[in-house]
C-alpha cells in the first residue's frame, strides 16, 4: 500500500482550480497532486469549496528542473526551521513541498509526505529516494526519530549540508575557472587558424619569396584544421567520453585519477584539504548524533569525495572495530595531516571527539577558501601568458613575412 501511494505521489501534476472560501469569496490558485479528486479533497480540508479543477497542460506548466544537491541542503534547513517553530512534520512537508520553486523537488517532497501518511517513518520515506538522501542523512533522521530529538538532528543535518555544499562550490570554482579559460583559448586559436590565417596565406602567395619556417608551420596547421576539423572535434569528444566512461566503470582508473589529482600543484592541495574537511565534518555530525564510531565510518568514507580517502577510511573502520584508537589508524593510513591527527587524539582522550572534529573541519574549510583565492590570483598571470603564447604566436607568424619584406625594400 505504501509503495503504491509513493508511486502516485511521484506522478503528481499541476492543477488549476477555482472555488469559494468560507466567507463566499471567490478564490483561485494552483496545486500539485496525483489526481483531481485528491485536489478537491485537499481544498475542502482548507475550507475551500472547489468549483472548477482542471489539469494544467505540460506545455504551459512549470518546466521541470533537475534536483541539485543545493536543493537538498535548502530543504533540510527549511525542515529544521519549521520543526523548531513547532510545526508538525507532515504539515511542514506540505508547506515546503507546495511552495517549492523546483517542481521536481516539490513532487519528491510530496512523495515523502505521502509515504509518511501511509504509515512509514520519516527516515524510511527519505530512504526511498537514495539518489538524493544518502545513508548518512537517513541514519541521522532515524536516530532523531527514535530518540525524540528529530528537531535537533535536522538542524545538525542542515548545517552539515550547508558546510559541505560551500566547500564543494569552492572546489568547483577552483577547477572550473582555469578549465574554462583554456577551452576559450583553444577555441579562439581554432577560429584564427580556420578564418584568419587563410587570408594572410592568399596575401603571401603574391610575395614570390620563401616564407619563414614558423609561418609555414602555422599555415600547415591551418590547412589541417580546415580539412580535418571534424576529426579534431570527434577526437576531442571521443577522448572526453572515453575518460568519463572509464571513470564511471573502472575503480582502478578512478583511483589513479584521484591520486594524480592530489599531486597537481595548488589544485591537489585544495582537493586534499577539502577531503580532510569533509572527513572531519561528517564524522563530527555523525558522532554528535550518537552514532557509534564504527557505524559512522562507512558514511564518512562515502562523503570524502576521493576514492583514495574512501578506501583508507574503510580500512580505518576495520581497524577501529578491532579496538584501535581512531588517531592511530589515521597515522597508519599516512593520509591525514599531523594537526588533524593530534586534534582527534585530544578529542578521544577528552571525550569531545565531535567538537574537536568540528574544529578540524572549520580550520581546513578556511584553508580551502584561502587556497582558492590564492589560486585565482596565481592563475591570472598564467592565463595571460597562455593566451599571449597562443594568440601572439599566431600573430607573429603571420607578420614575419611582412617584416622580412620591409627589410628587403
From TrEMBL:
The chain crosses the membrane at residues 175-197, 229-246, 383-403. It is a multi-pass membrane protein. The keyword Lyase does not apply. It comes from Fontimonas thermophila. GO terms for cellular component: plasma membrane. It comes from the Bacteria. Its main location: membrane. GO terms for biological process: protein secretion by the type II secretion system. This is Type II secretion system protein F (GspF). Residues 75-198, 279-401 form the Type II secretion system protein GspF domain. The lineage of its organism: Bacteria, Pseudomonadati, Pseudomonadota, Gammaproteobacteria, Nevskiales. It is found in: Cell inner membrane. Pfam families: T2SSF. InterPro entries: GspF/PilC, T2SS_GspF/T4SS_PilC_CS, T2SS_GspF_dom, T2SS_GspF_sf. Belongs to the GSP F family. Keywords: Cell inner membrane, Cell membrane, Membrane, Transmembrane, Transmembrane helix, Transport. Gene3D superfamilies: Type II secretion system (T2SS), domain F.
